[in-house]
Amino acid sequence: xxxQITIVGYLGGDPDMRFTPSGQAVTSFxxxxxxxxxxxxxxxxxxxxxxxxxxxGAQAESCNQYLHKGSPVLVVGRLRPDPQSGGPRVYTRQDxxxxxxxxxxxxxxxxxxxxGARGTGGYEADFGDEQGGAEGDEIPF
Length: 141
Prior knowledge:
Layout: E1 5-11, E2 16-19, E3 25-38, E4 44-56, H1 57-66, E5 72-80, E6 89-92, E7 98-111, E8 123-125
Parallel strand pairs: 4-7
Antiparallel strand pairs: 1-3, 1-5, 2-3, 3-4, 5-7, 6-7, 7-8
């Protein structure tokens, strides 16, 4: 079995890089993907989904060096479910409302031009499957 997610969005804050005890770099950042549409009653809806992205190895170092709050990126990776619930991580915001964050283990991070995803080009930092604790998943075809 294989699952993959592709997300295009903007960093919600500056990336945070740290190192595992074995010395491997891991960078984390929040990513907001928005969708704007008009519902059946003509009301404009702005829907934002937040993802928490982890990037490993040399790619983590590149992300930490070149990305910052507001950077547009394309992330390809795998969803990591919450071990307790099997779904997204649920949390309580400061105002008391409930929120959810989807955890993503990045396989590829593509830096997009500042104009957003509609531009061409961009820099791709793809260093393969270097996730910490990776199981060595193989594509079955």
